[in-house]
Amino acid sequence: MFHPPLLFTLSRHFLRRHHHHRRLSTLSHTLSHPIYTIWSANTGLGKTLVSAGIAAASVASPPSKLVYIKPLQTGYPLDSDAAFVYRKIPQILHRRNPNFTLTASNQTLNVSIPAAKVKIGDNFSDSRNGFGEFGFCEERKVGEGVGEGSELICKTIYAWNEAISPHLASEREGAFVGDEEVLVLLKKCLEIGVGSEGQGSVLSLVETAGGVASPGSSGSLQCDLYRPFRLPSVLVGDGKLGGISGTISAYESLTIRGYDVVAIVLEDHGLENEVPLLSYLRNRVPVLVLPSIPKDPLDNLMEWYDESQTVFDSLKGIMLSSYEKQMYRLHEMPKKAQEIFWWPFTQHKLVPQEKVTVIDSRCGENFAVHKVKDHDYITQMFDACASWWTQGPNAALQIKLAREMGYTAARYGHVMFPENVYEPALQCAELLLQGVGKGWASRVFFSDNGSTAIEIALKMAFRKFLADNKLLMDLPHYNTDESNIELKVVALNGSYHGDTLGAMDAQAPSPYTGFLQQPWYTGRGVFLDPPFISMCDGVWKIAVPKKMHYEDVILEDTSFNSRDQVFNRSRDDSKLASIYSTYISQELLPSSGSRKFSYAGALIIEPVIQGAGGMLMVDPLFQRILVKECKNRKIPVIFDEVFTGYWRLGVESAAELLFCQPDISCFAKLLTGGMIPLAATLATNDVFESFVGDSKLSALLHGHSYSAHAVGCATACNSIKWFKDSQTNPNLVPGQNLLRELWDAELVRKISFHPAVQRVVSLGTLFALELKVEDNDAGYASLSGTALLLKLREDGIYMRPLGNVVYMMCGPCTSHRVCLQMLEKLYKQLDKQEKIQTAHDYDHDQRLPIA
Amino acid sequence: MFHPPLLFTLSRHFLRRHHHHRRLSTLSHTLSHPIYTIWSANTGLGKTLVSAGIAAASVASPPSKLVYIKPLQTGYPLDSDAAFVYRKIPQILHRRNPNFTLTASNQTLNVSIPAAKVKIGDNFSDSRNGFGEFGFCEERKVGEGVGEGSELICKTIYAWNEAISPHLASEREGAFVGDEEVLVLLKKCLEIGVGSEGQGSVLSLVETAGGVASPGSSGSLQCDLYRPFRLPSVLVGDGKLGGISGTISAYESLTIRGYDVVAIVLEDHGLENEVPLLSYLRNRVPVLVLPSIPKDPLDNLMEWYDESQTVFDSLKGIMLSSYEKQMYRLHEMPKKAQEIFWWPFTQHKLVPQEKVTVIDSRCGENFAVHKVKDHDYITQMFDACASWWTQGPNAALQIKLAREMGYTAARYGHVMFPENVYEPALQCAELLLQGVGKGWASRVFFSDNGSTAIEIALKMAFRKFLADNKLLMDLPHYNTDESNIELKVVALNGSYHGDTLGAMDAQAPSPYTGFLQQPWYTGRGVFLDPPFISMCDGVWKIAVPKKMHYEDVILEDTSFNSRDQVFNRSRDDSKLASIYSTYISQELLPSSGSRKFSYAGALIIEPVIQGAGGMLMVDPLFQRILVKECKNRKIPVIFDEVFTGYWRLGVESAAELLFCQPDISCFAKLLTGGMIPLAATLATNDVFESFVGDSKLSALLHGHSYSAHAVGCATACNSIKWFKDSQTNPNLVPGQNLLRELWDAELVRKISFHPAVQRVVSLGTLFALELKVEDNDAGYASLSGTALLLKLREDGIYMRPLGNVVYMMCGPCTSHRVCLQMLEKLYKQLDKQEKIQTAHDYDHDQRLPIA
Questions:
Q1: Which of B184, B193, B150 is nearest to B376 (CA)?
Q2: pLDDT digits over A802-830, tens only?
Q3: B720: which DSSP letter?
Q4: Pick the CATH number of B31-299 from 3.40.50.10190, 3.30.930.10, 3.40.50.300, 3.30.70.260
Q5: Which of B343, B512, B429 is nearest to B717 (CA)?
């Protein structure tokens, strides 16, 4: 934002490289034994001494196994924390018990050429990306004790020669490693302990380099780099003058990235830094104090380790008991959830305990899910439901939004909106009007969710209608419920606008609106049959409803070889356009016979895609004509963009795809990037003016406590800007406010030919297909997708059924490659299932209005 | 939470003292000129060198004034950063221009006894809290230039002798200073530059001690201590190895407390730390690099300052331009707000631009508001509307919740709820059931706001009613809207349950529900007249509605000397109780004449206080009997605790005041401590069971995308725990789940006698009074409170009108003393206004359903 006139221009600016996962994540890590990351508030605070102390405490009672991992090591081979641990543990243990038996190994996996040359001389050359696959390994066995001994395994994954930060060493030594490669190798190392739990205790330690936010090789901060694993943490604090501040700040950098710190340990410098630290932590996290570390480099530290033994024993105890608590909780959670949650849209009787998914965290588009198969582990799954169609951020944006939420909550908390102004609300309104409201909207009304945004939109539209049609004569006179006017909405069959009564009343009757669900429901609409369009056998085809004199339709008007043709405005001149127009005009004729004067007071549509109705694409030509016909009749037009808005369909506002503008538009879900609730109803100045008057009674008397709440607005601001900035969103087509095609066109086409597939739709972040089903299995109660979805869940893709419609939804920044991999997995599973099996053991996943 | 078996027990644990404001805040600070805080990532990074560099750049072009303030100085008098600046600036400027004219002064205000003795010897003894009012001052004038010179004013506010952290020095030297005293003196020092802007540029610098999170004298971290001013900041970073991490962490500690950092400046150590820092900051915050600082303590730094001149000139430029941008924005905000916001419940025509309040931030219960009077300034106002009745946190809780929101967003973002479980949702449900749901509720259904929680509650209640009354025979058969059953709610006149259509339909007709506002409204209720109770002339009196055979009521049944008597269960045996019972039975007789079978399918009440209706207290005896009568008739009972819940009325659940339990209960607002939207509908197992069946169709098919969103749930968990823990909430009555009396009983009684006052209610965090008005001024359109409220706003209390009802709402942790001061101000204003003036220039503040 701020570009000061720096006189001494910095020689290099490097914009953060995009470190988000370009491949469908297959990361997972075991929970078969405790694994901890050792972080430090700064360099030189004794992180490796602490690792060695914990390691010694852990292997002291055989049989036990300790895996020590140093992913990034600089200053190698002179500095090698793994070598220090490898050398020191036998010394410590031997001193305590000369008969102690220990098998130890130390291995370095990848070494930069300069570091390798120092270690083994000039003849080393075998390299990849500037690294040699080094395979250096030393092993020893100490002690001659009876029975099984303990085992110490030390691994250095990447090493550089210069004793500087890894990002600098990488640059200077020409040896870079990407974040994902580090994580894949780290994942392998974490598996070392698996399977040996039966033979004694196992503990793995991952020691980071430098401070918590020191850059790794790629330039990613280490606290960001390791975030996908979100391992529990021990923080080595600073006992020196100024160390309270550094320790607290490092702790905060970890917590604001979602890490759990189970203990802080620091060296005593006589300042009792632990006292204010404990006060800050409200005694919720233990702070342990180590005796002063000898300054003499020749000191072998044996006496220091003797003095520190009780501290490390305590620390080990804390780490183990925290692990046990975590495991206990993970296992009890599904049962407790089943006992006390009341899930929306869920028949609880049909969700057995083993079907409950325990979500430990998320990182960008991926869930981290607890599973048990042989042993406990945490695995990543792509959240292809986009967490109820809201999810947008990649890992980098998630962390940024988290920080901004913290900032905003600390700066504003929640402040009252009416008659007030504060930066996040103002900026959010500005961004809405400059973006999705550009060219038509002039006012923003905030609320909490899609359903409230719709209720507000309806109130706005009705007033506008009454004003435009001179039905408001004397306000107080009409201020009763005894009007002889009946207002209806014009809406499309199969549409969905929310679950509060006003939003329900704007929908056509369905099992979801029936007496059983809401006895007060009365469908207050003129419900039209829209023509749907989808790809079948490689061709986009319109299904024209019977009512539209189907025989008149010319074939070339209803099938298209490309999606672009479907959206082409030249279709306005087609025969089909006039058929649509005629149909709409007939339906909008005033109805007679009612004891009241009945008017169509508003049009409400989901532009292009009816989401909850089954990911049905409505012919955009039909919607455009419908809007035009309503505007001609002074019927205010509402676009329900709760689902379609903010890049869901590849454009910021789906109205862009229709080439026409509403009077009122509703946004929610992706508005905040999919992080927290916020909704906005945008309106034209004409709509607003119909509420302006001398009396408060003519104002819009609707509001929610958290209207324009600061945290929601700030999150929306950051997310809106992120998605439309090509520096942060690699999917933006340069120079256009448009996402590149995310779903591989060839593969989509191929899928549309598959014998099991009825139709396919892909647009923006959405891919959906409808499975062919037997006639008696179609529609609402269909179960066909379930078997397929369960298979894809095993494949690392979290999906939910929408009857016989299967959909995948990614974020606006998700890479094309991830989408491709998901489609490939889907195609593979489709092929495996020669005939779709109806899964009778899982029969509750029927078609959902919100899936 | 975690109490490890530490072998070496820490000798002292001090729990954080309660640093929240015990007095009504009068803090304000000027915006007449730029004021910056200079923070540092650690000690010894050259913070004072930077201050002096900025100071020199600033005063270099006369006439200008530089105010340098060091609030906390240790190591005094040997170390004195103020003295360094005082000495160094003349040197630097004289070197550049021998004719430079500068008047400089250096003053130390309060000095600990040991420090004072070093400075002026043993004869010093005049002390307060271990400090001497020192008044040490030195002055000088340099240069003989023509015209007005520049001015340098250096102030040290508190000084200690030992060169350690202020909290330790305070302890060792027996010289403590509370946070509020520091702020009050700092506020004075910030005013030094005011009024002299006309004579040239003015800049104030506040230099902190140590790192950003180093403790001050009281033990409060400095980043928390100075938070009420939230001054814009410059961060001195660390250019050394490991310094990237420390700088980023310090930056994050500042931002997660709501500070704005306008620039980072660091010393060059040849590691190019600025490159990864700029990458992290995405170039949004400039990072400036200073030449390496000479290590020789005898170096006079003159050459270094020469080399650094361009950097400090840039830095000064950044600081000034950022200030100008801030001022520009503050001034344009009201206009922009008026142009693009659509405020809820607001007749825009009646809000002139000058009435728009610009809220710059909040700190605990106080807003920081931008005002202009002679010059621009930011002043604190107590948020007595509790930001639309949601606000709870004090400053410490706000910061804690902000951090937890950051953590939760980073860990989970938003994850899908149905069939899933994650820690925040589970813990929140557990806390709800163990707290407000204890003894009756077994299930939690999450949604987004009070209105949706009510819509869900109604759906639950109706189903339960149908099931209990054998009206559900064959589900699919009833799954239409053609039922011949009509369901109504039983509700109280004047109640309010939300603005979505279902919630509106459960309310009695009013201007807010009329055709003009929502043409679809039909009051679907049996609306009863409740007996209201309030204090008049020192006595609590019940106004028994006419319909209840008023002549039968015994006087002693309707007036009470204390509120406790009102809530006493012995009243169940009174004559009045049977009158209530008879009235209710009559009203619940089935109505006839309808073409459908009409049933009362649910009771819905706001327990004890009807908030939006005008802070009306309903006789708790009446509500208890109403609940009993409904339960006898198998009519499910809904408590709408959206307003009353979570300590608003001094207890966690207002149901405790009624001594009876509902079948369904709704919570929102204070559930998250008043930070972000979240709502919960709690239900008994019987209610839940009426939705359990073999078919998904019998499940509750209602949901919102952000159901049980992680950030909301985690915020609720932290807030619920904070308010009911006596370690964090000083207002808890020991051993009871009850807030102490917050509103001074004597003063409340006195106010009830005031001739202008009709009635008074005080309960929990709520104080309300109704003003006496002429008959034609009463009720909905009343304006009487406005003049009073405007006066109280000038007195630092932010209030909104509710017709002729004036209310103040505090948080559950607000101190009794703050409440007392507010009541005193109110009483004073009441007295001043002999006759309540109706303010015709501000006539839009009529009675609001939500004020």
A1: B193
A2: 888 999 999 999 999 999 999 999 999 99
A3: H
A4: 3.40.50.300
A5: B429
Instruction: Give yes or no for A744 touching B (CB within 8 A).
Output: no
Q: Read off the pLDDT of residues A403-453 as tens digits, 9 standing for 90 and up.
A: 999 999 999 999 999 999 999 999 999 999 999 999 999 999 999 999 999
> pLDDT tens digits for A363-407?
999 999 999 998 999 999 999 999 999 999 999 999 999 999 999
Rounded-to-integer distance, Cα A57 and Cα B849, Å: 64
Query: Can you tell me whether residue A145 is helix, strand or coil?
Result: coil
| ipTM associated with this complex | 0.95
Measure CB to CB from residue B342 to each of A321, A444, A798 and give the nearest one. A444
CATH architecture of the domain with range A397-475+485-723: 3-Layer(aba) Sandwich (3.40)
What is the distance between the alpha carbons of residues A243 and A46, in angstroms, rounded to a whole number? 13
The yes or no reply on domain B443-713 and CATH 3.40.640.10 is yes
Q: d(Cα A152, Cα A375) in Å, to the nearest integer?
A: 22
Rounded Cα distance, B586 and B553, in Å: 18
Would you list the DSSP string of B28-90?
EEE-SS-EEEEEESSTTS-HHHHHHHHHHHHHTSSSEEEEEEEEEE-STTT--HHHHHHHHHH
Are B572 and B540 a contacting pair, CB within 8 Å?
no
* Spatial distance between the Cα atoms of B182 and B258, rounded to a whole number of angstroms: 20
Q: B107 near B154, Cβ under 8 Å?
A: yes
| Token output for B343 | 């405020």
Q: Which residues contact B116 (CB under 8 A, 6 or more apart)?
A: B124, B132, B134
Report the pLDDT value the prediction gives residue A62, as an integer from 0 to 100.
83
Rounded Cα distance between B356 and B366, Å, is: 17
Q: Please report the pLDDT score of residue A256 as a whole number.
A: 97
Distance in Å from the first CA to the final CA of chain B: 39
Q: Any idea what DSSP says for residue B736? A: S
- Alpha carbon separation from B657 to B496, B563, B572, B640, B663 (Å, rounded): 20, 11, 14, 14, 16
Please name which of B283, B275, B376, B396 lies closest in space to residue B323, comparing C-alpha atoms: B376
Phi, psi of B17 (to 5 degrees): -70, 155
**C-alpha B646: how far from its chain's center?**
15
CA distance to partner chain B, nearest, from residue A588 (Å): 20
Task: Provide the shortest C-alpha distance from residue A326 to chain B (in Å).
Answer: 11
Say whether B416 and A362 touch across the interface (CB within 8 A). Answer: no
Residues 245-274 of A with CB under 8 A from B: 245-246, 248-250, 252-253, 255-258, 262-263, 271-272, 274
CATH number (3.30.457.10, 3.40.50.300, 3.40.50.150, 3.40.50.720) of A28-330 reads 3.40.50.300
DSSP secondary structure string, B288-335? EEEPPPP--TT---HHHHHHHHHHHHHHHHHHHHHHHHHHHHHHHHHH
Chain region(s) in chain A for CATH 3.90.1150.10: 741-842
Out of A248, A362, A451, closest to residue B500 by CB: A451
CATH topology assigned to domain A741-842: Aspartate Aminotransferase, domain 1 (3.90.1150)
Superfamily of domain B348-383+741-842: Aspartate Aminotransferase, domain 1 (3.90.1150.10)
Return d(Cα B220, Cα A125) in angstroms, integer.
57
Task: Please identify among residues 84-123 of chain A the ones whose CB lies closer than 8 Å to any CB of chain B.
Answer: none
| Contact by Cβ (8 Å): B55, B67 | no
- Predicted local distance difference test score (pLDDT) of residue A132: 80
> Please, are residues B212 and B254 in contact by the beta-carbon 8 Å criterion?
yes
Angle of CA points A481, A483, A487, to nearest 5°: 95
Contacts of A420 in chain B (CB under 8 A): 337, 356-359
Beta strand segments in A689-776, E: 757-763, 766-771
